[in-house]
Automatic annotation (TrEMBL):
One Pfam family in the UniProt entry: RQC
Gene Ontology cellular component list: bacterial nucleoid; cytoplasm; replisome
Protein family (similarity comment): Belongs to the helicase family. RecQ subfamily.
Domain Helicase C-terminal: start-end pairs: 239-387
One GO MF term: ATP binding
Keyword DNA damage: yes
Keywords annotated in UniProt: ATP-binding, DNA damage, DNA recombination, DNA repair, DNA-binding, Helicase, Hydrolase, Isomerase, Metal-binding, Nucleotide-binding, Zinc
Name of the protein this chain belongs to: DNA helicase RecQ
EC category: isomerase
InterPro entries registered for this protein in UniProt: DEAD/DEAH_box_helicase_dom (IPR011545), DNA_helicase_ATP-dep_RecQ (IPR004589), DNA_helicase_ATP-dep_RecQ_bac (IPR006293), Helicase_ATP-bd (IPR014001), Helicase_C-like (IPR001650), HRDC-like_sf (IPR010997), HRDC_dom (IPR002121), HRDC_dom_sf (IPR044876)
SMART domains in alphabetical order: DEXDc, HELICc, HRDC, RQC
Organism of provenance: Mannheimia succiniciproducens (strain KCTC 0769BP / MBEL55E)
Length: 637
């Protein structure tokens, strides 16, 4: 494989050189990317975001989990002379992030409520003396007088605010106290601020920008697509048995099972254990020491599956989670997207499976209506309706997710249950024209139920008051049921022809046409829709797209075994040593020298120095045994 590595290196170098010549200020960042983190090239969007930060601009970065969001602020942090503050609500994630940075030879630490006063003082002393490059903090820690007294003694060059959707009232995890972070710009006027999140629609993005008072910020909104994740919905009929069968079929791979109650968490964990699956429960009712033990065991590959409420997952930095199963419906598309995003962070194939029945939505809706009326409840209701429509969709699941976040696409993904086992189709152009015309002629000011009411010719007082019973479109859909038209409208929303806009508080949502509708209304294109309504959804197994299959599987198994031994000895999670993706690349190219090893993505100078030799020794030994016609795995056993 030496020649392949050499060719690969030659293919990369011109790109790096060209980028550095055209943008001299990015050359240091490229060097950090390669020598510290061990990656050959920037991923899409990273370079422009990093360049904006290095030029002193504020920025808002919306980038899907697994697309290298952390590097967007970690690389500038190493390029700036002073200290970078990283503000994150994920206290449980801070130590993992710091451990990963330390493994790459980067001076980093954290301050939060889990530390004693003595430990916190030690960290502060390191920051004041200039020993640290990155300091992770919780928002609560930042908004204290003692923090400002301490930080005034530090040379702060840059500020990153992670999980920035928590700042917005439109975000799925809104925390009112986080809006106080808007005062940071006034306290650090010369330090660029970068806000980052994996999930934010246009309304949420505007709210983040306003709340943080960012100065002419650079806005980067990357693709929300995670093509390595297959989205599947399974209709519940014997849910516990279905779930256990699915997990058992994963054959020891790491996964997370989410459900909405502590009692279900306990029951499912026990059911999986009875099937011989290494599983543990995790929820807010457990002692913090118990939760920490479960999380650590999962991160270190000592537990295969964690069954959890939404209390688990936001603090997980584990790159080799191969599946996420939802036993219950999430409360919003943002929450579902964020939770499924825990799978496949290493870009390798992963599964996101939702077990669903309409009663799940009805229960969540009932719980929501028991809350006092408020603007926040209206927002929650809109988001719950959206995830309900996702679950009942007859359109490519990925299209539903992408169009919800404003990434208008119409091409199916061929990697979800709808694409792999498609519903029956019909010529839906006329139905679409009826709906789009009704939305347009009623002024694009009303929601789904009202539009359907006009189409079906209902004798409704509000329709009469608005004189919409005099429109040509009044009654054009009376031959079809309300459920039929609901299904078609949902499909048009999912396909990006119609948008649901949240009206003023208390006014619900309204339907609005997008630019994509013009050729449909004019009859210039054909339009296939799914025949309403889908009666059953089945689990489909098909080859994962983009899966790497030509690496040496036996060598990969040996490298994973070695990684686990090293991780246990170093007392760190295995993925901090090297990710599965890095081990697969080693198994494919089989590097046998330092130069070749440093061309493997994820192998930086410090990691090579710390871990490289034993991995290279296994590769050499493996090649020798293969040459001698022996089975390399016999040594391991």
């Amino acid at each position: 494989m030496t020649a392949e590595l050499s060719n690969r290196s030659e293919a990369i170098k011109p790109e790096l050189i060209k980028s550095a010549v055209e943008n001299p200020e990015i050359s240091t960042a490229l060097d950090v990317l390669h020598s510290v983190f061990g990656y050959q090239t920037f991923r899409k969007g990273q370079q422009e975001v990093i360049q904006a930060a290095l030029s002193g601009r504020d920025s808002l970065v919306v980038m899907a989990t697994g697309n290298g969001k952390s590097l967007c602020y970690q690389i500038p942090a190493l390029c700036f002379a002073g200290l970078t503050l990283v503000i994150s609500p994920l206290i449980s994630l801070m130590k993992d992030q710091v451990d990963q940075l330390l493994a790459n030879g980067i001076a980093a630490d954290f301050l939060n409520s889990t530390q004693s006063l003595e430990q916190q003082q030690q960290v502060q002393n390191k920051a004041i003396s200039g020993e640290l490059k990155l300091l992770y903090l919780s928002p609560e820690k930042v908004m204290t007088n003692s923090f400002f007294q301490f930080i005034s003694l530090c040379n702060v060059s840059f500020i990153a605010i992670d999980e920035a959707h928590c700042i917005s009232q439109w975000g799925h995890d809104f925390r009112p106290e986080y809006t106080q972070l808007g005062g940071l710009k006034g306290c650090f006027p010369h330090a660029p601020i970068m806000a980052l999140t994996a999930t934010a629609d246009s309304t949420t993005r505007q709210d983040i920008l306003q709340n943080l008072s960012l100065n002419e910020p650079h806005l980067y909104v990357g693709s929300f697509d995670r093509p390595n994740i297959r989205y599947t919905l399974v209709e519940k009929f014997k849910p516990m048995e279905q779930l256990c069968n699915f997990v058992a079929a994963q054959k020891g791979k790491s996964g997370i099972v989410y459900c909405n109650s502590r009692s279900k968490v306990e029951r499912i964990a026990e059911a999986l254990k009875k099937r011989g699956i290494s599983a543990a429960a995790y929820h807010a009712g457990m002692e913090s020491s118990q939760r920490e033990a479960v999380q650590q065991a999962f991160q270190r590959d000592n537990i295969q599956v964690v069954v959890a409420t939404i209390a688990f997952g936001m603090g997980i930095n584990k790159s080799n989670v191969r599946f996420v199963a939802h036993f219950d419906l999430s409360r919003s598309i943002e929450a579902y997207y964020q939770e499924t995003g825990r799978a496949g962070r290493d870009d390798l194939p992963a599964e996101a499976v939702l077990f669903y029945e309409p009663a799940d939505y009805a229960w969540l809706h009932k719980i929501l209506l028991e809350e006092p009326e408020s603007p926040q409840r209206d927002i929650k209701r809109h988001k719950l309706e959206a995830i309900g429509e996702f679950a009942e969709s007859q359109t490519c699941r990925r299209l539903v997710l992408l169009n919800y976040f404003g990434e208008n696409r119409q091409t199916p993904c061929n990697n979800c249950d709808i694409c792999l086992d498609p519903p029956k189709k019909y010529d839906g152009l006329l139905d679409a024209q009826k709906i789009l015309s009704t939305i347009y002629r009623t002024g694009q000011r009303f929601g789904t139920q009202y539009v359907i009411g006009v189409m079906r010719g209902l004798q409704n007082q509000k329709i009469k008051e608005n004189q919409h019973d005099e429109l040509k479109v009044y009654g054009i859909g009376k031959d079809k049921s309300k459920e039929y038209w609901q299904s078609v409208i949902r499909q048009l929303i999912h396909l990006g022809f119609v948008q649901q806009i949240i009206s003023d508080f208390g006014m619900g949502t309204r339907l609005q046409l997008t630019e994509s509708t013009r050729p449909v209304l004019r009859g210039e294109v054909s339009l296939e829709l799914a025949t309403p309504r889908l009666s059953s959804i089945t689990m489909v197994q098909a080859p994962q797209r983009n899966a790497v299959t030509n690496y040496d599987k036996d060598l990969f198994a040996r490298l994973r075994f070695l990684r686990k031994q090293i991780a246990d000895k170093e007392n760190i999670p295995p993925y901090i040593v090297f990710s599965d993706a890095t081990l697969q690349e080693m198994s494919l190219y089989q590097p046998t020298s330092k130069v070749e090893m440093l061309q493997i993505n994820g192998v930086g100078a410090i990691k090579w120095q710390r871990f490289g030799q034993p991995f290279m020794a296994i590769i050499k030994e493996h090649q020798a045994l293969r040459k001698a016609g022996k089975n390399p795995l016999e040594l391991q056993s």
